[in-house]
Amino acid sequence: MADEVSRSAAKTATLVALPITLLAGVLAFWLLGGFGGGAKPKASPSPTPQPSTTVAVPPRTLAEPATTVCRGFIAQLPGTVRGKIRRPVSAGPEQNAAYGQPPVTVACGVPAPKVAPTATVYALSGVCYLPTKTSAGTVWTTVDRQVPVAVTVPGDSGSGQWAAEFSDTIANSVKSLAKAPSGCG
């Protein structure tokens, strides 16, 4: 008799548990995207067109070894930085580069800036810069390299981050000075 009661209880438990398990499985399948339910995938944003026109940059005459250093540095720059495509420049493509619109420009072999003893310099990803505000934006010029490099960023939002984007290439291509200004860490 006890065996019959146990069997009856087991049948009842199975008859109740099986539909609940099936229902839970179907619900999970539906929530995870089966049957066309669940969250719909979002379309990726359309890429914005970027200009490929030439960017006007002033020509400079460089002496050796700056010419060789700059040629090697510019050759190492990537084709895209922070989603901005590299654009052709009007003068000195072996010493200048430009990205995006409005253009962020990179100039190798610029005059070394005068660094006052109390000037605030920024070590960004291993390279030391002196920022100079202009009406068009900020010029970040290296102060710890044998051949100075300037990164000109239009406007004022995120300009330090833009300079830092080029720091690895500068550090790998342009030798540092034996003695950097104080504050360069």
Automatic annotation (TrEMBL):
Membrane-spanning residues: 12-32
Stored Pfam families: DUF3515 (PF12028)
Chain segments carrying region Disordered: 40-59
InterPro entries cross-referenced by the UniProt entry: DUF3515
Keywords: Membrane, Transmembrane, Transmembrane helix
Protein name: DUF3515 domain-containing protein
Species annotation: Actinocatenispora rupis
Lineage of the species this protein comes from: Bacteria, Bacillati, Actinomycetota, Actinomycetes, Micromonosporales
